[in-house]
Every structure is written in structure tokens, then in C-alpha cells.
Predict the structure.
Amino acid sequence: MAEAIVITSGKGGVGKTTTSANLGTALALMDKKVCLMDTDIGLRNLDVVMGLENRIIYDIIDVAQKRCKLKQALIKDKRFDCLYLLPAAQTSDKNDLSPEAMVEMIAELKQQFEYIIIDCPAGIEQGYKNAVAGADKAIVVTTPEKSSVRDADRIIGLLEKENIESPNLVINRIRNHMMKTGDMLAIDEIVQILSIDLLGIVADDDEVIKGSNHGEPVAFQPNTRASIAYRNIARRILGESVPLMSFEEEKGVFYKVRKFFGMRQS
Amino acid sequence: MVTTNQLIVIKGTRHGLTLYLDDSCSFHDLYVELDRALSTDYMDTEDSMITVTVQLGNRYLHKEQKDKLRDLIRSKHKLVVQSMESNVVSKQDALQWKEDSEVQVRTKTVRSGQVLEVTGDLLLIGDVNPGGKVIATGNVFVLGNLRGIAHAGVEGNTAAVIVASYMDPVQLRIADFLSRAPDYESAGVYMECGYIDESKKIVIDRLQVLTKIRPELSGFGRSVLNG
């Protein structure tokens, strides 16, 4: 049973593409056949984050307009045999894709893959409509900021109208020290306002930016906070029950010794 | 007091004239009679406008007929129709009346960008999130967190109230009045209500005060008042 999951947020810059790339990678690490689908036409990024930019020949618009076969446009990941990317077009715009074409492509992809991760563009216009058209599930990404929680709320309201299961929530870019001082919205508060199930929380980690810039999603790394968080989310998608990560840092002598030896706290 | 025939009785009060119209004759007879009665009446042109209340008894009039009567009375000197009252209403009006006074129960989260609009009172079981909006012609009761905008008495009922389990709204609106959250950060309060007080301002208070200031909220009295 293949599943199409759309990653959306409403607001831009909260980490939809990063989350898509890392969830895809984490699922592939667990030997699942995964296809990443970039629907942000005109502003494609997922290929860059995955480090596959130089391999693009055909794109999603070519497939939608039948200029090539779906197989020709799929790019195999450098690291996994079970991970593929269907890149967005950079020269067309969002109106060149239609929800019907998306449904058709996803149906075809489902025969080949177990998980199809759809990276949704920001906004609630045509691009969003295309991205959610063929999805079975939705993951809403937000950050602990009022503006992104507001937009997430709007998106959840719009998703209710679609033929999609109740969406799950990922809270990205959590800065523990700011949450403690009350300068950031608390996780409980966000979940209470949005009133949907929490799928995972991801710390604001420099490694994520580093990974994106090197075309290596952070989920590859064994021991950073963000990579563990993403892998936990992937495990929850597979149905495992994994407790939420604690953001409390142990500040004992042992911690300092470990840090001194370059061991990261997990 | 002037009496003409049996069809029309005119009474003068401190607030103007009241016309009691017979309710068993035909509309045509009534119209002719009214025309005659008002034409023969002596009116002092120096007087200011006189407001007229028309009592129709058990007669039901269509809108066109009402307009006809109204035009007739208006055409006479200084008379202005203030209201027409009848003991009967049409089924349609009665249904409308019922709808206006009914409590509409809804269970959902009103999210950012969503608007929930009802005729009558709204009982929302769920939250109103920031950016969301609930509108009712009657009262608004929120069994949940009110964090968005609530508009009660949207058609002008200033007696409408807004009640919430948790009151932390962006704006409260009642009829044409508006109050907004202060610019400084403030936490919401549990079990509160908003209403328009004597100074014509929306005030927020604990909901227990409603028993005193809006006793009509309970029971059948409410629906009659709303009608």
C-alpha cells in the first residue's frame, strides 16, 4: 500500500523542503522505496538540498505535458537505490501543472514506490492545490513563531476541505533556550491552538543548514539532534511509537567530558 | 379623539396618533375610508411632523398593501408612519422569527481565514483561532478558546452578548460596536462575557454578571424580545 504524503506549511521558509528531503532520506535509510516530488515549480530547491541538481534532464512539467515518460524524469539518489527524486521545472510556472495531472502521476508512482513525499510550495494558490491533489496524508510544518502558526492554522483549515486524513504536525527550528524564557511559543501552546496530532519536533541545528548547502540531508548523519529528530519522525510515519525528544541538556561533568572528546549528545 | 364610521378609529397620544383599523372589512373599503377620514381631518400646517402608529388588529397585509397604506398616510399633510402592528404574522415570518431566536449548535475549530456565520444564537463547541471569525445575529457562546474575532448581534441587536470559556479575542464586536485587544501582551481569562454597558461601550466581565444585566437570556422571553 503506497502512501502519498504532502509536506506543507502555508508560510515560506519554515522548512518544508528540508523536512521533505530529510524524511525521504530517513525513510530510505529504513529500506523503504521513496520518491520525492518537488511541486514548487519555478522555485525548485529540493534537488539542490539533495545534491542532485546537476543530474536533472527532464522535470515534472515534461511528464505532465507528456514530453517524456515518468521513468525518464526520475533521478536516482547518489546514496540510495531506493530513493528517487522527481524534480520541479524551473522555467515554467505553477499554472502549467494541473491537479488532474498530479493525481495521474501519483497513481503511476504508487505502483513503484512505498512512500511519495510531495514538497508543497508556499502559499495557498495553484501550487498548493496541485500539491495536495493526489495526497493521502499531510504533514504541516510550522516553527514556534506566531506568524507561521497562524499560517499553519489556515492551511489546516484548507486541508479539512480536501479528501485527506487529518494532518500531522511537525514543529521545526525549536530553540530550547528561547522557549524556556518564553520568547518563543511553547510546544504545548502550538499543539493546543492547532489541535492536530504532533508528529515530531526538530531542534534548530546548524548542521541542517550545513547539510543543505552540501547537498547532504542532515538525516544521514548518525548523531546530530536534527538527524535523530527526523529519523524519529520517519519511524512514527511507519507506525512505531517513539517518545518525543527531550530538549533538556545534561550539564554535568560527564557531559563536558563527552563534549571534550567530540562526542555529541544524542 | 375623532371617530369616523366604524372602520377607522383615530386616537391621539403624547407620542402622536394611533390609527385603529377595522380588521373584518375588505382592504379596498378600508383604503377608501382611510383616504376619506384623513382628507376631512383638519391639520394645522404650523405643526411639526406627527408620527402615526397603525394598529391592524387581526388583519394580515402584504408588503404592497402596507406600502400603499403608508404612501396614503404620508401624502396627508404632516403625517408619518412610524410603525404598523398586526396581531398576525405569516408562516414565513414566523419561521424566520424562530430561526432568529434559535440556538445553532456547531462543533468545529474555526481556524485562521475561516468564517462561521449563523442566524440566531451561536453555540460553538470548539475554538476560534486567531484570524478566525464567528458571526451571529444573536448571542455568541463559545465553549472553548475564543482567540479570534466574535461578532454578536450583527444585524444591530445591541443587547447581544459574547460568552467564552476562555476569552482572549483579537476583537469583540457587538452590533456596530467594536473593542480590540490591548497593544500590550495580555493573557486570556477563563469564563468571561462581553456586552454593551450603559456608557455604550463593550465591556468584558466575569460571566456571572449576565444574570443581572441580561436576565432575558434565559427562557422563552429571549426569543420574544429578539423577534
In short: The first strand of chain B starts at residue 2 and ends at 4. The domain at 2-85 of chain B is CATH 3.30.750 (Transcription Regulator spoIIAA). The interface with chain A takes residues 109, 111-114, 127, 129-132, 145, 147 of chain B (CB under 8 Å). The helical segments of chain B are 27-40, 63-74, 91-101, 210-213, 221-226.
